[in-house]
Write the structure tokens for this entry.
Amino acid sequence: MIVLSAPSGAGKTTLCQGLLARHPDVARAITCTTRPPRPGERDGVDYYFLSPGDFEARVQAGEFLEHARVHGHRYGVLKSEVLTRLRQGQDVLLNLDVQGAATVRAAAAQQAELQAALVSVFLAPPSMAELEARLRHRGTDSAEVIQQRLQAARVELARWREFDYLIISSTMAEDLRRMEVILEAERMRVGRARLPEALGVEAAALQPQPG
């Protein structure tokens, strides 16, 4: 379970899309939100777009792994989205803000299955000036909203040490290469890797022997 977080506009959604396009063995956990769809976004593909009432009903039913209010809208990841894919042996990618990542981290600490799977990555812009330029280039927010996002970014950037890995954004290709390095390294950890069955080594033989 890879949690990728970044300030709004830093490029985490584009990075997630690039990783998913190159790695069909990585599954994206689709986030629920109450915000209106942006041009080109599709329900059930980019997000699950829910009414405020439907979202609240799911909160009360305890269906979310994490949920938060960000920039006036609610976002959340369903437990079923993550656990089903993990139990199928898939790597799961979560595109979350810093607040959401903290909530997942706390939830994982209470459930061994999630704790063992969790890897967190923080994507930081190279400068505040570059972040502002990216937000303006996106063309979806007013000047007032952009300033609000920049103020929130300063708070989020101060929390980068809460994550397992830090990527300072460069080009899209370089950011993707670094994510792939992290993915491959985590897959080779002994706690997650598996020896080929053809080796005939029993799982019990891999356990540490009492000294």
In short: Residues 172-187 form the longest helix (16 residues). The CA atoms of residues 75 and 177 lie 28 Å apart. The mean pLDDT is 90.
